[in-house]
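re the bet — no i am not wrong, look at it urself. input seq straight from the record:
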Amino acid sequence: MDQRSGHKPYNDIIEMEVVDLLRFYGFTATAEAPVKIPEGGWGRVDVAGRKGNVSVGVEVVVTGDVARDAKKLSMNPFDYRYIIATKYPKQVDEIIVNGKRIKVVDSVRSFEHELRRDLGVPPDYPYFSKTNEEKPPEVFVGTSEREINRIIEELEEYGLENFADDVLNALGKIYISRNLPVEVRVHYNPMTGPTAPNEYESVNIKPQVLSILQRLNLVDISRKGTGYARKAFASPSERGLKAGHELILKRIRDHKAELEELAREYGDKLWIILYGSLWYTLDHFSLEVVLKEYEYTPTRGGYTKEDSILKAAKNVRVLGRYHYFDLDYMEPPENPTILMFSNFLVKTALRDDALRFFSELERYGLAIQDTERNSRGEPIYDVFKAPIEVFQYLATKTKRLANLGYYAQKFGVLYTILTVGDLYDPGVARRGYDELLQKLELNESAVAEVLADMNRRGITSRLITNPEKAPFIILDRKGFEDYLKFSLATISDYFNSRG
């Protein structure tokens, strides 16, 4: 302990967090355990842990020498060796000392991901880093409607009380959308500009209702996009966010019985639909399921239609729009492999269930049909969209399927092979493969097993371990795609057959 400040040094804080983390995973762990040191004789390792026949050694480096600590770890009989170097330039790296592999990570979070991967921890096993996080809050019956009541009072003061339902319904749409088109360009020529005085036409919300929303300081209006796709969008103001939140909670309370019946009807499928449609945009979460795509997947030789299940697998996302390589910059609320697998199921086996679920929410004013757009204002997806409050309420009414993690791992292996198979440069393929194993916490032996089966069928090589080469070679591209289609369909059909 730092005697001058009365606080523990940063090193000690990390050490105790690592000790607690290892104990969380069933290890007997101690700080400052005796080990051999490079200078000769005995010294200390920051953290040592043992679970059965498996041992782990961990060094914490804030300002010290990574090379010396790597040598120290290599001299001792640990099965897994890690250095947590908080100022290391890479999130995860590997160094070899005396033939022993030492992983260097930049944080306790990265250490946990590598430990889970090395130990083959199932993806549905909870994370130590999330054990102290609060569960999504229940929607309480006694939630205030103060802002809604003020809006109604102000409408009465203006003599506009006959617009109350229209105003609240419009606010609900804007709150759920967060970016609702209210004017579209109709009289415009990209060469000459506007072709008539009424360049824009109102959509989604009547002009007089939009005027009232602006007067009550409930929405902000902005024009976005270019050319013919330029539009006016309404987003909730700070006051609109408060009132919209109250409005959604009121609708949940008003339809509590129907929502609980939905939860009973869908059972553990509801968990997959909720997490598989969880979407993050800028500064807020929502639930979204794609109704229509406006863009096609390019392939060699132009635009071609892909097999639906391969396309669904290639296009899985974490929180709606994020790729596996974006995981460096985000902390998803669940294991990323489970989120991606749930997203895949929502696109395939559970698609009809998901669409019916959102249709029910739409009946209760808890979902809308909306469009996701690019920076030019052009449509990318038509979607069903519901607010995060629906997730927060219904997530407490369902539970994850017991064997979801098992199938998620299988999917993760197939997704990795499919993704790497589309990377034609050997160096790029190797880097993508290594990154996928790390981000999805996959054990390489599971990938090797599938490739060995494909090799027996004359489809691919076995797993190539040389780090300078691609992880595998495809010998039969059609056979490769057919094998993956069948394997993915088998997983999808299991969930489709559960009724």
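see?? Residues 146-238 form one domain. told u. also Residues 188 and 194 are 4 Å apart (CA to CA). so pay up
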